[in-house]
Specification:
Blueprint (H helix, E strand, L loop, with lengths): L6 H18 L12 H4 E3 L8 E3 L1 H9 L3 H11 L6 E7 L3 E6 L1 H5 L1 H8 L13 E5 L11 H19 L3 E8 L4 H17 L14 H14 L7 H4 L10 H16 L2 H23 L6 E4 H6 L2 H11 L3 E4 L2 E4 L10 E4 L7 H14 L4 E7 L6 H10 L7 E6 L2 E5 L2 E2 L12 H8 L1 H8 L8 E4 H5 L6 H17 L19 H23 L3 H20 L7 H24 L9
Parallel strand pairs: 5-6, 5-11, 6-7, 11-12, 13-15
Antiparallel strand pairs: 1-2, 2-4, 3-4, 8-9, 9-10, 13-14
């Protein structure tokens, strides 16, 4: 057994060895059969059925052409002796119920206290590299509450994968080369012209936020009239906005580039620097950090976009039509073919995305995880198709979709946008309810499920508030420990054999389950499992706290109970850290 007390993994190892012995026997043949830990060993739902259940005999009945009870009997007979297993029983048609010894369960307290912040770490991903790319919002304005859920999910997932043994790279893909950046640069320049007295029809589909005026004011303060050009020329030849808003905007962008020449790059870069800087600061304040900020423009500068497209062309995965180049994505299950290079010679966003994914695979990641908004669901087939067309193993790519969060205040759906159409920003939400509540609430449900975010509940100091409930459990433990005059080192010598009550056994099982919960969360890309586990552990602790006395006269019993709740606090702290939430010692 490892220091993390992962009984499920231990039992998987025992049954793997038993299966090997059974398959070597003449009665069952020698067919090699896979043994999946997740589908073989699971926690029992009823205490009378033991601590763990194994359905291996049921799985093997058909391929081995034997009754499952006979297979179960053979597996039990071949099961290696283990000091953690008290007994093994066959139930029903052939389920195997495993009972863990009380001594083994009680040993988890010392294991937690010894491992401390390292409790729960595993070797599941040892020797494997994982990349988690998340948020990756266009740097064209403040992050909104939708981006916030992706940030909380991606950061928590990366922490879980790291704890599970993967070498994790956290990456933000900066869309600094596309049309949206040109629209932001144009919007900033037009506001700059207005500050110098220009009367113009600001496009409705340009960026409207006050932050655009702020950037224009910065440029005016630093450079005066340097970037002023005749307003009439800015609108030369532009089709009416009411006829085609996009064509109108594209014409204005072309005019801005023509009128300013090299000066256009300054406006563009100033807007990019300001908005990307604000994004970095916002995320850092939210406790979200990245190892890489990968520039889309670098894909063009390094020739990777051209190389990716030429590779597809060389393998006949592209064709030319009406002057544009199209990827045969229907050949890979997409609903229609996709343009990668327009008739004007400009690459599409999809082209740079192909190059970006090629770059990811060339960096040698074993798991490539994209965290996307749920509205990008239709984009998945074309990306997978492009990878396959490039001869890459698309099974290494997993795309985790994140649904939008809906805010509620006073029981009513809160306004998600201002009059100008801007979404409520992540910063506004954080300032109102706090980082801890925001991070925890964002991962309370599976990422692909809609999330109703109750802002009043998130701010409340009540047991109904899940983050308060979990943090309060941690603080309660420390409140008790502060009243104790002993040394923390003494807790390692506690007689855990004194832990016998139902409350105590329930807590021991939660501590035991924590490492497996991390592995499950890493395997399924599901950090919400950590949040669920912490809520359950906190609930069991509060029940124990309300039913028990800790600073009793019996020194041995006192030390034992304090050791148990200290272990509970440690696991609460570890789990909260994975979710980017603090573990206060006083509330």
């Amino acid at each position: 057994m490892s220091a993390t007390m992962n009984f499920q993994s231990h039992l998987h190892e025992l049954f793997t060895r038993a299966l090997s012995a059974v398959l070597d026997g003449q009665d069952f043949g020698t067919t090699a059969l896979p043994l999946s830990e997740g589908s073989c060993i699971e926690r029992s739902r009823q205490a009378s059925h033991g601590d763990y259940a194994c359905n291996l005999a049921m799985q093997l009945a058909k391929p081995l052409r034997k009754p499952p009870r006979a297979i179960a009997q053979a597996l039990i007979a071949a099961l290696p002796v283990s000091e953690v297993v008290e007994k093994v029983e066959i139930a029903g048609a052939g389920f195997i119920n495993v009972f863990i010894t009380a001594t083994a369960k009680q040993a988890v307290v010392k294991a937690v206290l010894q491992a401390a912040d390292g409790y729960g770490r595993s070797t599941l991903g040892a020797g494997r590299k994982a990349q988690v790319e998340f948020v990756s919002a266009n740097p064209t304005g403040p992050l909104h509450v939708g981006h916030g859920r992706g940030a909380a999910y991606g950061a928590s997932l990366a922490n879980v994968l790291d704890t599970a043994g993967y070498a994790v790279t956290r990456e933000y893909y900066v869309n600094d080369a596309g049309r949206q950046m040109d629209i932001l640069a144009l919007s900033t320049w037009l506001r700059y012209l207005e500050l110098h007295g220009a009367q113009l029809a600001f496009p409705k589909n340009a960026y409207q936020g006050s932050y655009v005026r702020d950037m224009a004011q910065q440029i005016k303060a630093a450079h005066g009239t340097k970037y002023v050009r005749p307003t009439d020329h800015a609108f030369d030849g532009a089709p009416p906005a009411e006829d085609d808003g996009d064509a109108h905007l594209d014409a204005l962008i072309a005019n801005a580039k023509r009128l300013m020449g090299e000066d256009y790059a300054y406006i563009h870069n100033h807007a990019l620097t300001e908005q990307l800087g604000d994004c970095r600061n916002d995320l850092a304040e939210f406790g979200v950090h990245f190892d890489e900020w990968f520039s889309e423009q670098s894909l063009f500068d390094n020739g990777l976009v051209a190389r990716a497209i030429e590779t597809l062309k060389a393998h006949d995965h592209l064709y030319q039509q009406d002057g544009a180049w199209w990827f045969r994505s229907t050949a890979f299950g997409d609903e229609k073919d996709r343009v990668v290079r327009r008739d004007n010679g400009l690459y599409t966003y999809f082209a740079s995305d192909i190059a970006y994914h090629l770059n990811k695979f060339e960096r040698g990641f074993d798991r490539v995880i994209n965290v996307w908004g749920a509205d990008h669901h239709g984009y998945i087939p074309r990306v997978n198709g492009a990878l396959r067309a490039l001869g890459l193993d698309s099974s290494k790519l997993t795309i985790a979709l994140v649904q939008f969060a809906v805010l509620y205040r006073n029981g009513q759906k809160a306004a998600m946008s201002t009059r100008s159409g801007e979404f409520v920003t992540l910063r506004e939400l954080r300032n109102e309810v706090g980082n801890d509540a925001t991070r925890f609430f964002y991962v309370l449900r599976k990422s692909d499920q809609h999330l109703d975010f109750d802002m009043d509940l998130a701010k409340s100091q009540s047991n109904e508030n899940p983050v308060y409930y979990v943090q309060y459990a941690h603080a309660r433990v420390h409140s008790v420990l502060l009243q104790w005059s002993g040394a923390r080192a003494d807790l390692l010598d506690a007689d855990t054999g004194l832990l016998e009550s139902d409350y105590e056994m329930a807590l021991l099982q939660r501590l035991i389950d924590y490492p497996q919960t991390i592995e499950n969360a890493a395997h399924d890309l599901a950090p919400h499992l950590i949040a669920f586990h912490l809520k359950e552990l906190a609930a069991d602790f509060h029940s124990y706290y309300n039913a028990s006395r800790f600073l009793v006269e019996d020194d041995a019993l006192k030390c034992t109970r304090l050791a148990l709740i200290a272990a509970v606090a440690q696991v609460l702290k570890n789990g909260l850290a994975l979710l980017g939430v603090s573990a206060p010692e006083k509330m």
